[in-house]
Amino acid sequence: MSEATAVEFKNVSKSFGDRKVLQDVSFQIEDGKALCILGRSGTGKSVTLKLMIRLLTPDVGSISIESEDIAHLPEKELSRVRRKIGFLFQSAALFDSFTVADNLAVPLRHFEKTMSPKDVQHTVEELLGQVGLVKDRDKLPGELSGGMRKRVGLARALILNPTLLLVDEPSSGLDPITAGEIDALLLKVKQERHTTLVIVTHDVREARKIADTLAVLDQGCLVGYGTLEELKSSENEVVRQLIWEC
Fold first, then answer.
1. What pLDDT, in 10s, does the model give residues 39-98?
2. Strands (DSSP E) along the chain, which ranges?
3. CA 174 to CA 41: how far, in whole Å?
């Protein structure tokens, strides 16, 4: 039996003025799998993530989340689809004046209005336990290390139990040991929650550890797509440089 499709891009193009960021990009991601998007800076990697959650809209083509085309959904319907999506920003994007616990509680209080304060607290404590930060629940983001901020950001991205998790440069600015810990958490999310992951990264070692499938973008074009073994035989020079980088 074939796996259900979690995300599908069909002939997607996106430009900003005269600059073509994505050109006729098509791919599918199976439910519960991890895709890592690789490429040099300015090749459209982060734009691809923003299109998946419709922070941007494509100029041409369709983008489907669980078989539902989101490119032209009205706002009310788009909000329903976004409930299925978690987003871990590169900076973690925490509320600086809120404690760690309150950062996690915000989505629950906004979207799960029938939850009791006790249930909100229990859910927050459970997620903080999964990322190893229960003892830090009352700290402000400014009191945390970069790795701890990423852990809080990951916990908040998971608080509504999304089926799709989008992650922008999870190892950026982290030392190798801390980056490895974040990678391990992402793998755990995929394995235990069966969450579909889409990860933008410059780190080929990270991609090798997490990805079921790799996508390589170059100058807005999808120049490589497949498993690591499949891409090893690619004739595209950019793909070969990235895959054989380490």
1. 888 888 999 999 999 999 999 999 999 999 998 888 889 988 998 999 988 777 888 899
2. 5-16, 19-30, 34-38, 60-65, 68-69, 85-88, 164-168, 196-200, 213-218, 221-226
3. 18
Rg of the chain (C-alpha set): 18
- How crowded is residue 235: how many other Cβ atoms within 10 Å of its Cβ? 7
- Domains of the chain are 5-84+162-243 (3.40.50.300), 99-159 (no CATH)
| Count of all residues that appear for the chain in the document | 246
pTM of the model: 0.90
Question: Using CA atoms, how far apart are residues 127 and 193, in angstroms rounded to an integer?
Answer: 13
Helical H segments across 17-99, by residue range: 45-52, 75-82
The pair of structure tokens assigned to 26 is: 């098509």
